[in-house]
Amino acid sequence: MALAYALATRGRPVERWRVVSFGAGLALLAVISISPLQTVALNYLLSAHLLQNVVLAEWAPALLVIGIPPFLAASIARLPPARYLTWPPAALAIWLAVYFFWHLPFAYDAALRHQATLLHLEHGMYFGAGCLLWWPVLQDEPWRLRSGRRAGYLFAAFLLASPLGLLLALVPEPLYEWYEDGPGLWGLSAITDQQIAGVTMAFEQALVFFAAFTYFFLRALHGDERAEAYRGELTNPGRAPGPRRP
């Protein structure tokens, strides 16, 4: 992926912060794949595995997508499937479907029992759906959403995804046999591990989505003020803008 990025941007000016963002996304993918977290996640703790999933479905895709320069994003957006897959309702629906399906107990346990096949499919689907989720928010092409719509999109994503973390935190019994029957770690019971996983997921989603929502919401407010001032100049040319009357 790093080689493809370097070749696609060779000879073209790319902002340094985009390169850093793309590199950080790749670094996150490497950390969750080749560090001890991988061993803990796949054999001992649900909370570690959910952290892996969060990185795959939310953090790394966001960093990678925002790291794509506009000229490259425009080229990607011109590909026939891109316009349909990045349409905000479709992108959000795909992400939610992937997120919830792979957290169903039968699917979750099956992926862990077939780590050479289903687990890779699960992780690939998380990552792909995460890129689709963030594309309409972090790239202009092909939909060019206004900031207010981007804020609304993020709020919808948080609202629809948040019940999963709350469910894991509040359900009174372990949901996943793989961890219930596993050796555990640090003396944590399966239900305690599951509660930690649920609380962590709920907190993480609130933090990430609220931060992004706030950014675009404030941008929308600023844009509305400028548009209102511009309309006022057209209506009353030559009149200096002043405070509104109470």
Give helix and strand order, one letter per element, not per position: HHHHHHHHHHHH
Give the low-pLDDT segments. 230-235, 239-246
Give a count of the beta strands, DSSP E runs of length 2 or more.
0
DSSP helix fraction: over 70%
Describe the structure.
The protein has 246 residues and is mostly helical. The radius of gyration is 21 Å and the shape is globular. Residues 230-235 and 239-246 have low confidence and may be disordered. The chain is 76% helix and 0% strand.
Briefly characterize the structure.
The protein is mainly α and about 250 residues long. The chain has helices spanning about 1-10, 15-35, 35-45, 45-65, 70-75, 80-85, 90-100, 105-115, 120-140, 145-170, 175-180, 190-235. Helix 4 runs parallel beside helix 12 (about 190-235).
